[in-house]
Structure formats: C-alpha cells, structure tokens
Amino acid sequence: MTSAPGRRSSTFTRLLRHGFTDPSDAERFLDSPELAPVRNDPVLLDALGGTADPDLALHGLVRLLEAQETATARQELLDTVIAAKPLRDRLLGVLGASEALAEHLARHPRDWQALVTYEPRDLHPGVEEFERGLADVTDPMSLRVAYRRCLLSIAARDVCGTVEVSQTAAELADLATATLRAALALAAADAPEDAALCRLAVIAMGKCGGHELNYVSDVDVIFVGEAAGDADEDKALRAATRLASHMMRICSETTVEGSIWPVDANLRPEGRNGPLVRTLASHLAYYQRWAKTWEFQALLKARPVAGDLALGAEYTAALRPLVWQAAERDNFVADVQEMRRRVVANIPAAEVDRQLKLGPGGLRDVEFAVQLLQLVHGRADASLRSGTTLDALKALAAGGYVGRADAAQLDDAYRFLRSLEHRIQLYRLRRTHLVPEDEADLRRLGRSLGLRTEPVAALTREWRRHASVVRRLHEKLFYRPLLDAVAALAPGEARLSAEAARERMVALGYADPAAALRHLEALASGVTRKAAIQRTLLPVLLGWFADSADPDAGLLNFRKVSDALGKTPWYLRLLRDEGAAAENLARVLSAGRLAPDLLMRAPEAVALLGDGDGGGLTPRSRAALEQEVLAAVRRADNAVQGVTAARGVRRRELFRTAAADIVGSYGTESQPAEADQGALVDLVGGAVSDLTAATLAGTLRAVVREGWGDTLPTRFAVIGMGRFGGHELGYGSDADVLFVHEPRDGVDEREASEAANKVVAEMRRLLQVPSADPPLLVDADLRPEGKSGPLVRTLGSYEAYYRRWALVWERHALLRAEPVAGDVDLGRRFVELIDPLRYPAGGLDEDAVREIRRLKARMESERMPRGADPKLHAKLGPGGLSDVEWTVQLLQLRHGAEVPGLRTTRTREALAAAREAGLMSEEDACTLDEAWVLATRVRNAVMLVRGRAGDTFPTVPRELAAVGRYLGYGPGHAGDMLDAYRRTGRRARGVVEELFYGGA
Q: Which of 967, 935, 349 has its CA nearest to residue 664?
C-alpha cells in the first residue's frame, strides 16, 4: 500500500476524509499482516470512519487480531467483521470509544463473541440475563472478567445508539445488582458458617438504587441483618458484618483484571462511625429519632437488590412512610438547598467550570430539584415515588407539579449531560465527572454523541446550552407551578391543586400559605404586560424569599411595593433587566421591618438597588450629603419645608445604608457575603453618622434662615457626643450632642443666648414632628450638669465650668466629642478647650480611676433590664459594648497625652492605637475588637429585624432566626449563634477584667 506515491496520497486523503487524525499511523496499521486480507475492503474503512475515534478503533482492532491464538481464529474474526454489520458496528464502536474495553479484549481475545448475538432479548437485558452471564464465576478474578464481558455488551448497545441513555443506565444498575449477588454468593461460599447464622439484605442506594447507574461509580449500599432462626443476635450481626465486608472487598479490590467498582456504605445511619450492619429495628429507631433531612432524601432511591430480598422488602416497607414525612420538618427546603450549596462550595475552584455532575447547571441540580418536589408532594401522590430521576420528572409534569415545557427542557438537558458523562467514563473506565480539556478527548466525545461537523466546538456549545437551561430552570421548577395554579392562564395544562400549592408554600417556610397564594394571584393574574413580567420575576423572587427567615413578609412587602410602583414604566423594567436589582430587593424586603418600612414611605427608592444610575448602595460622603441637604433647604419656602426635605434625604439614605448592610450580610448569587464583619459595622456607623450630621446642618440652616435671615446673632456649633461623635451611630441611635455658641461682636449676651436657645428648641421640634419620615431625636443630656444645666452655653461658660467643676464622668464623656455642624471655627476652639481635659497630662490619678470603675459597675447594675439574660445583653453584658468602650476609654484618659494615636473619638481606631503602643497585646486587642463588632452587629440586626432599637436578642423564633441570617447563621442554627455570642463575650470579659479592673 506504500509502494506507489500516488496511491499513498490517495489513501492518505481517504483516511483524513473518514475522520482519522493520524493518517500516516493508520496507513501503517492497515498495511499490517493482520489486516492484509481486508486492507482494500471499503466496508472496513467506512465502518472505522463511523466510530468516535477511528484511530483508536483501528489500533484496537489490530491489537485484538494480534491477540487471537490461531490464524483460524483471526480469520473467523475478520470474516465476521466484514460480513456481519451488527457485529462490525458494535465491535468497532466500542474500540473507538473505550480504550479500557479494548484492553480487556486484548487480554481476553474470545470475548468479542459476546457481541455477535443480536436477538430481541439481547437488546434489553435485565438482572436475569446478567446473572446468567455471571453464572460461571468461581472466584473474584473470574467475576471481574465476566463483569467486563457483560459491560462490553452494554457499551456496544450504547455507542451504537441501539438504546437510549436511560436504558443504558438501567442496564448498568441491573448488572450491578447481578454482580452484588454474585459477590455475596462468593463471600457466603467462603464462610458458610457465617451465612448460616444470619439473614443479610443489601439495599442499593443512590444511582444504583434509582436504576440510573454510571459506567464507573461508587455503588452505594446499606446493609440490614437479622439472626437466622434461633441464632444469637449479636453473633448473627458479627457474621453478617463479616459477609458484608468480604462482599465489599470482592467488588472493590484492584487486581490484574482491575476492580469492578467501590462499594460505599457511608449512607448508613451514623455514616462511617456507625455499624456496617444493623437490624431492621435499629435502622427504624435511628430514622425516627436522629436522621437528618438529607438522609430521608437519600432513602428515596432505596431498593433491595441482593441477599435476603424478603428482609430487604421489610426494610423498605418500614422506612418508606418516613420518607414522605420529611417535608414537614422545620427548615426542610432550606436544609436541602443548603446541602446543595455546600456541595458546590466544596468543588475546587479550578474544576467548577468543568464539573458535569456537581457544578452549577450540572446533573445534581436536576436531581436535587426533582427530589425536592418528590418529597413535598409524594406523600399525597404515590405516582411521584419513583427512584429514577427521569421517571419522577415525567410524573411531576403529568401531575401538574412541574410545567410540561420546563420538564421537557430538563429531560432533554439531563439526557445530554448523562450521555456525555457516560462517554467520558467509558474511555478509560475511570470515575470522573470532569469534562476534559484536551482537544483530542473533546473531539472523540463530540463524535461519539453524533456531532461530526466541528465536534469540539459543537460539543462545547451543546454542553453550555444544556447547562444554562438547567441553571435557569432548576430553582424555578419549584416556584413556577405556583403561579400557574393561581393565574390559570393555560387551558388544558395540568396544574397544582389548591392543596398541593398549599403544601409547597408550607415546605418553603410560609407560615400563612393561604395569604401567600392570594398575593401571588394578585401579582400574577391577568393578561397585562405587568402581570406577564411578574410571572417571569416571581419564580426567582420566591426562591430568594424562601431563603430568608420570613418569606411571608418578603412576599407581602413585594406586593405592597408593586402596588405602589406597578404603573411606573421603570420599576418592573429595572427588576427584569438589571441583574442585581431583583435579588437585592428580595433580600431587603424579607430581612426584617426597618428597610421595608423606609422603602414603603417612598417606594421610588427601589431605584437605588439597581446597577445603573440610581447611585447604587454605596453610602454617600458627608460633603455630598450636606451639599444636597443645604440645596434643598435653600429651595424651601420656610423652615418646615426645609427640614421636611432634609428628613426626606435622611430617610432615603437610611434605606440605602440598610440595604447595603443587608445585601452585604446575606450575600448574593454573584457576590458572597462580606467576610469582614468590622467593615459592615464601619459602613453603617460612618454612613448613619454622616447622614445625621448633614441632617443637623440642614436643619440648623433652615431654622436660622427663617428666624434671622442669613446671620444668627451668635456663632453656633453642634458637637457630636457618644456614638455620634465616634462615627458609630446605629439605625436606632439618638443623636447625643452639646450645643455651644459665642455672641458676635456687638451683640448683647442675653440676646445671643435667647437666639441660641430658640434655635435649639426649634431644631429639636422640627426633627421630631410626626411625618412619613423617621424622627431624629436630639439628646443633650451629656451637657454640663446634665438635665439640670442649660441646653446651650457659650464657649466661655463651658471653659469656666470645666475648669472649676468638671467631674470624672464629664471628662470621660468628652472623649467622644467632635464638631458635626455649625460654625467650623467655634467647633475647632471647643475641641482645643476640651483636649487637656480628656487627655490630661500625666494621666488620671488613682482616685479618678476608682471613680470610673465605680461608675461602670453602678451603671451595669442599675440599667440592666429586669428579666434580661446579662450574658446576651449587647450593651451591658459580659464583653458587650460597655465593657469594650470603657476599657478603651480608660486607656485614652490615662495615656492619651503621650500617645497621639489614642486621641480619636472612634473605638476601633483607639483600640488599634493602644495595641500599637504596647498598652495591650495583639491577642487581647483582637478579642475586644471581635466582641465590640459582634455586639454592634447584634444591635443593628435587632433594629433591622424588629424596626425598633434593642440591646437583646429577640425571643420570637422567626425574629431570632432573622437576626441569625443577618449574622451569617443558616436556618435552624439560632442556638449556635447564641452560644457563639456567649463565648465571644466570655473571652472579652476576661480581657476587660485584666485591663479595666486589674490596674493596667
């Protein structure tokens, strides 16, 4: 064939045309002595060109011919290949798709005859046929050989397209069943005395139990054992355990003939820590008392396959009723979805995009969605109880639990993904779910799936398309039929019954499913464009609401916002077209009362949640806020209108801050939750403090302008105190302030004082006038002489008072003083006045230190609410805000004069400065910082959830769960949150005892 250059060129071209990638190598094989009789036969070349990898098929055929023991055997194989098209297609199809099965044929050259039979019963073999194929095994080695021989026939039917993918998966499960039975028989033959003592049932789980096994997969099992006759139960269980262990080794151990597959019993009660074999009563007791949601989900596929089948039937009969009660468990849907998220989170980052099984849009997404629906509705509808994914999906569609179009798309995608998975594993018979990166592998896979034109590009395109369909549908699958049930827009389409819809809403965590369904009906019914867009949005929104602690509130609030904004042209377009807006809105509406209340007062603030020009969720600077507020005051006709405008800005910006905090705490599908809790605390504290300062500046300008025009008779400044001065305000904080004034030149002091007092009174009144905007309470109780002293003093009066009368607590309070509004120069001079008081040269004497400690102890004992758990009080409890702040402030009073970094009003900055100055260890500083951040987060969470300020965790379970979600704890983990808070507080209190009370 190589003698004439022209012929070589012609052959070379023909080989390329038939799909060979290495024509030179192929020519060499075709010229080999083994193929001499048929080298010019066009039938052979056409058949090789029809395989997934013609080069691989030709190489495998030559190896098989070389392995034949005699020339007669070789001629028999060649004659059959050329003359019998079914054998030719099967054999060459396998050789072109599976390097591992080509290896098997080379080792066992007569096994090709297993592919010759082409009878109806051969097209759809079951357990009985496979048991006949394994009937002659005598030891583990012969079992492996017989197993591969049977596998050869399954692969041949698969690659030739004789059967579709679900039938292939069922055949693989039936072969696994026959193999488990043969392995157990071998184990029993080796230990007949053990076999006589016990009854042992093998329950298939997972894909084997579901009749949808892969080529190479762990075979999941559970073992049930009982004593045979009058045998002692303990002895019987030990005997059953030995048999089960031996059976697992027979299947799992690697020999020169390879292994069959690992047998995995880790789905049993207690997993690896539990006994390998249990009695039926022990299984039942475990599932009734201890089993987690995922364990009932796993039981969906339980099926007795080997050993004592009567005992296996008793097992499934006893446990199956428990499966259908799982949907009634607290946090059922959340548990299932959280397990799915954990699976995805554990995929190595480098593999996520290639994961066919576990990655987003993969096989597991379809399986989880189907199983979730089965568990919710299978109790009332026995037609849904199949362990096979595609059969269950078909039943769900027939019953109206899933839309028919959605089910058809998922069915198509699942079949493609399973086919691709099968071909990937078939090549080397290795357990993998990763799509390869090598172009030759991708080419072989594409051709094996019938993609012959540009197979690599076509395969990648089809895979991505199907994965995208799964990603888009797998969660909507749960929610869309709810809309169909209430909207009733498709005549003739099977729909959820009212009871099935109620069951599904309860499973999603809705406390009032009837009200929730009414909201859906109001939102989604009708033929308007608005209703059509809502039907597109709601399946996704319902999933996000269900992921919160209060789905009912989320849906109700969404209906209210939609009722208010539904006729505006931009609202639904924003949610539909801007990726972040809909999810951000869902998080905000279901996270508690504060943010929805702020939004309902001016629903157009929804625009802030988008990606576009609404400003986003980044808090604005104090300068930008002041500029906007002062501009609004200038445009106003009077002080009332001006302050109303300022309060409107405050309400909008409070919503922006709360939304940013919620989204950052919950995370989104595209952006994980903020890992740095301190960053969220700083965001809220800085934003609310800046907003409060801007509001006061605007209010001051409005009041002065109405009463005195452009110039007040006295210079006037507002000094922020407490959390306000420290840039640490929370959502529910009052604004602690001092007011200071200084008469202008030529103005009588009495006139100036009257003007200043009128300004303060009018500011406080206007900021608390009942309106749609939240009030801002201005508290001046930290002034000299407290409530007994004048509201406003001149700078000189402050100087005289502090020089003569200042008490320790007043010097302590001045640590947080910072000008926030009004005359800048006056504010600066006030700071110069108080700096020597709050950072005294030489620090504090021991009497002053004792007085501060006494004041703190008295405050804790007098102000702790009756009946409150001190260990859970965020302000006054162990390791709470008071503990950390007083410890830091004592260090500031003692060392501020010589340590410049301590001269700050901010707690965390002062804490860091104390650490850098060596006043506390790195570990102690981290402990105090963690406790302060956590306590602050708890206070913010309580305000967000309840809509009113509080220093203790809520007692209402749903509110407590919402606080937990904000703090990063999943459903059902409120107890873990409280335990963690106590631990953090206990550690911080130990540091406080040393640094605050220990004389440090």
A: 967
pLDDT level of residue 5 (50, 70, 90 thresholds): very low
Q: Of 856, 879, 892, 991, nearest to 931 (Cα)?
A: 879
> Model pTM greater than 0.90?
no
Pick left, alpha or beta for residue 672 (phi over 0 → left; psi -120 to 50 → alpha; otherwise beta).
beta
Give residue 766's identity as a one-letter amino acid code: L
Instruction: Give me 540's structure tokens.
Output: 């996704």
Structure tokens, 535: 């039907």
Residue 245: CB partners within 8 Å, gap ≥ 6?
276
432: its two tokens: 């993998």
What does the alpha-carbon distance between residue 819 and residue 830 come to, in Å, rounded to a whole number? Answer: 8
For the stretch 504-509, contacts whose Cβ atoms lie closer than 8 Å and that sit 24 or more positions apart, written own/partner, are 504/376, 504/377, 504/478, 507/327, 507/332, 507/333, 507/376, 508/333, 508/478, 508/542, 508/545, 508/546, 508/551, 509/331, 509/333, 509/334, 509/546, 509/551, 509/971
pLDDT in tens, 204-227: 999 999 999 999 999 999 999 999
Residue corresponding to tokens 């830091």:
888
Contacts of 467 (CB under 8 A, 6+ apart): 359, 360, 361, 362, 413, 417
Distance CA 674, CA 686 (A): 17
Q: Which two tokens stand for residue 963?
A: 């606080």
Alpha-carbon span 808 to 853, nearest angstrom: 11
Q: What is the C-alpha radius of gyration for the chain, rounded to an integer number of angstroms?
A: 38
Looking at the chain, the whole-number percentage of residues with pLDDT higher than 70 is 97
User: Rounded to an integer, what distance in angstroms lies between the CA atom of residue 190 and that of residue 178?
Assistant: 19
Q: What is the pLDDT of residues 886-910, one digit of tens each?
A: 999 999 999 999 999 999 999 999 9
Give how far Cα 738 sits from Cα of 205, 723, 803, 831, 835, Å.
71, 13, 17, 12, 15
Q: What's residue 118's pLDDT?
A: 60
- Tokens representing 350 are 């480098």
Give yes or no for residue 107 having a pLDDT over 70. Answer: yes
- Tell me the H-state helices in 476-621: 476-487, 498-507, 513-524, 529-546, 551-565, 571-577, 579-590, 594-601
Per-residue pLDDT tens for 393-409?
999 999 888 888 889 99
Q: Which of 16-25, 598-607, 614-623, 912-921 has the lowest mean pLDDT?
A: 614-623
- Indicate the SS3 state at residue 263: strand
- Please answer whether residues 210 and 299 qualify as being in contact, where contact means their C-beta atoms are separated by less than 8 angstroms: no
For 418, the token pair is: 């399973």
Task: Please give the Cα distance from 447 to 459 (Å, whole number).
Answer: 9
Which pLDDT belongs to residue 204? 98
- As a whole number, mean pLDDT of residues 234-255 equals 96
What 394-399 contacts at long range (C-beta under 8 Å, 24+ apart), as own/partner pairs, is: 396/370, 397/494, 398/494, 399/494
Q: Residue 194 and residue 973: Cα distance in Å, rounded?
A: 45
Beta bridge partners of 306: 202
The Cα 69–Cα 75 span in angstroms is 11
Sign of CA dihedral 608, 609, 612, 617: positive
Average pLDDT over residues 101-117: 92
956 contacts: CB under 8 Å, gap ≥ 6:
none
For the stretch 80-91, pLDDT in tens is: 999 998 899 999
**Which SS3 state, helix, strand or coil, does residue 566 take?**
coil
- pLDDT of 4 > 60? The answer is no
pLDDT, position 494 = 66
Q: How far apart are CA 963 and CA 977, in angstroms?
A: 9
Q: Look up residue 873 and give its DSSP letter.
A: B
The whole-angstrom separation of Cα 416 and Cα 459 is: 10
Question: Residue 596 in contact with residue 554, Cβ under 8 Å?
Answer: no
Phi and psi of 365, rounded to 5°? Answer: -60, -45
Q: Tell me, what's the pLDDT at 613?
A: 44
* Mean pLDDT of all residues in 8-13: 71
What is the torsional sign of CA 640, 643, 647, 648?
A: positive
Q: Residue 966 burial (CB < 10 Å; 0-12/13-18/19+)? A: buried
CA 788, CA 232: separation in Å to the nearest integer? 87
